[in-house]
Structure formats: structure tokens, C-alpha cells
Amino acid sequence: MPPIDRRAFTSGLCLSGIAALAPSAGPARAQGAAGRSDTLLVMEKGDRSLSFYELASGRRTGRVELPGEYPHEFVVDRAGARAYAALYGAKSSTTPGPGGDAVHVVDLGTRSLARTIACAPFRRLHGIRLDAKDRLFVLSEDRDVLLGFDAPERAERPDRAVATGGIKGHLFALSRDGESAYVANILSNTVSRVRPFAPADAPRIAATGLWPEGNALSPDEATLYVANRRSATLTALATEAMTVTRTLPTRGDVVRVDCGPEGDLILANYAEKSLSLLDPALKEIAVVPLEGAPVALARHPSSPLAFAALEDDRIAVVDLEGRRVQGHLATGREPDVMVVLPG
Fold first, then answer.
1. Of 229, 265, 318, 297, whose CA–CA distance to 73 is shortest?
2. CA-closest candidate to residue 48, choices 32, 69, 27, 34
3. Cα–Cα–Cα angle for 341, 41, 60, nearest 5°?
4. Which of 91, 99, 144, 205, CA to CA, is 20 to 30 A from 66?
5. What was the pLDDT predicted at 15?
6. InterPro entries, from UniProt (predicted)?
7. pLDDT value of residue 37
8. Looking at residue 20, what is its pLDDT?
9. How many CB atoms within 10 Å of residue 106?
10. Is the Cβ–Cβ distance between 305 and 299 less than 8 Å?
11. Rounded to whole angstroms, how far apart are CA atoms 69 and 330?
12. Is the pTM higher than 0.85?
């Protein structure tokens, strides 16, 4: 299994537990908030696997191999019982080829592949989300269609499909009630709002910048934040009117956006190999240098920690209060999407 990166030993603190990684919270508070048995679930694209890492030790404690090339985005249901992984079937959005046409269902209790949902003829399945009722939505990049599964734990095929109104939809944000999805279309340079349960409603389209990709909804869902990679801008989009309310420059090539429960943002700066921390007013309050290019972000649900998957097969563990990297986890090949499973 991958070893703990010894560069994690900094300032007298080692990657031996969540408490050590969040010293500003105090040992007792950090242990109580995060727990010593939390697990970080990591998609390792290059190894075609979903891996389990114990955060208290950094050890890989389990691994589920997934059929097909390059499984990518995944989500976990509210009970923490199942993970749903979209089979993208390509290394990146610029890689040619037909791509994958399935969703893998992983039983997190037994740590095994439970079954696979066939989605052909819809291929290059990438963006994937669950609403508050655990209904599943999956984005087909090659057909520009959003698929819906009302009961994904037993579904054999999609229950619905709606056109996105854009070209090469890669990622999307979803309202908690599942009634609205906001799709970032990287080739048409647009963001489209679609209503999965109102198929007669036409998509609402907004132009935000060149190559929109990473995006996140504000806590009240009134604003969608969209990173436009080739414009090097961040756009705030009013979700009801689908109008741009603000655009500001970024450090360039932001690939992912994460919005916290208080409205603060984390931007993954791929070209600069850093994270930008923005306050709710979108003011950059800190920049955290990284040792590799970030490709995905995740937050701990109860502790001031963030995780950035890096292209050098490691995950940087970031103390958001201290605004610095606390350590690294060595992983399998091409780590990407991550989810914290509380212990």
C-alpha cells in the first residue's frame, strides 16, 4: 500500500491523526470534531479503483477495483452506504474517444462492487450528483444530456434524460431538491440551467467566459460560482435570472471551485500549483502553495481541513485556519475526487 509521505513531518507534527493536522483547533477539539477513525475515499483513476484511506494513520485500508478505463467522478449517498462512480472512459476532457457508458455502484460496507448500471448509448459519463432524496443525476458529455435515476440503488437504466442546451457539458452543480441543475459547457462557453423534472422547460443559457468548468453553488443556492479556465476569471451567476452579477480575475486556469457552508471559496489553481482562499465577499485572503498541480478538492465536514488531489500521486492536507499544507498522503495513480466518510 502507498506509504505516508515523510514530508508530512513538519513543525513537530506528523500525519498521525486529524488532531495533529489541525493544531490551531486544539487536540481535544480537533479529535472531537473530526474523529480518529475518519476515512478518506479517493478515486484513483490510473489504477481504476476506489480506495479507502484511514486519516488517523494515512494507511490505505481497502480498495475496490472498477471495470473499464478511467472511472472518474463519484458521489456517496446520505447514509454512507453506497458510492456511485461515473465511467468517463478517457484520461481528460481533451482526450478523444467514445468514452464509458456505465455507472458503478460500490457497497461501502463490504467494500465491493455491488453492480453496474448500463447507460448506453449515453457515453463519456462525467459529472455526477445526488439530491437530498438520494436521486442520482449523471452528465453525458458526448450526448450533452443529463440522466436521472429515481432509485439508483436498484436502477437498471436511466429514468429520465434532458438536453443540456450546451456543448461538451463536463461538470454541473445541483440544487438540494434536485429541481435545478447548472451545467458548465466547456466548448460552447456557456452555463445552462436545466429542470430534470420539467422536461418541457427549455434550458436557460448564460455566457460566463472561455472554457467554464469548475463550479459550485452558494449555501443559499442563489449564486453559482463558475471558473472560466481560458479567460482566467471567476463568474458569479444569479441562478434565478441566469445573469452574471460579477466577474473577477483569478490566478489562471482554475480547475475546481469549492464553496463552504459559510460562503467562503477554495479555488484550485492548476497552472500556479496553489489554492486561493476567498472570503464570502470574494476577496482573496490567502494563497496556499502546493508541491503539485491540484486536480480536485474536498473539505472535511466538521474540521477546518481541506484536501487537494495532486498530479504527483499525492493528496495535500490543508489547514484552512492556519492557511498552510499540514502534510501529504501518498496514493495510487492519478488521485482525483475525494469524499470524507466520518468514523
1. 297
2. 69
3. 110
4. 144
5. 38
6. Haem_d1_sf, Host-pathogen_enzymatic-act, TAT_signal, WD40/YVTN_repeat-like_dom_sf
7. 82
8. 34
9. 23
10. yes
11. 22
12. yes
Query: Which candidate, 153, 200, 162, places its Cα nearest to that of 181?
Result: 162
Q: If you ran DSSP here, which 8-state letter would residue 90 be given? A: S
DSSP H or E segment with residue 259: strand 254-259
**Contact indicator for 313, 334 with CB cutoff of 8 Å:** yes
Task: Name the stretches of the chain with pLDDT < 50.
Answer: 1-34
Nearest to 134 by CA among 190, 185, 174: 174
Cell 495535500 locates to: 316
Would you report the helix, strand and coil content of the chain in percent, each value rounded to 5? 5, 50, 45
**8 Å CB contact between 165 and 203:** yes
Q: How far from the centroid of its chain's Cα atoms is residue 293's Cα?
A: 15
- Which amino acid is present at 102? A
172, 169, 149: which is closest to 160 by C-alpha? 149
Which amino acid would we find at residue 118? A
* Grid cell digits, residue 241: 435570472
Place of cell 472560466: 228
Which residues contact residue 283 at a Cβ distance below 8 angstroms, ignoring those fewer than 6 apart?
none
Cα dist from 126 to 39, 103, 141, 196, 272, whole Å: 24, 10, 7, 17, 25
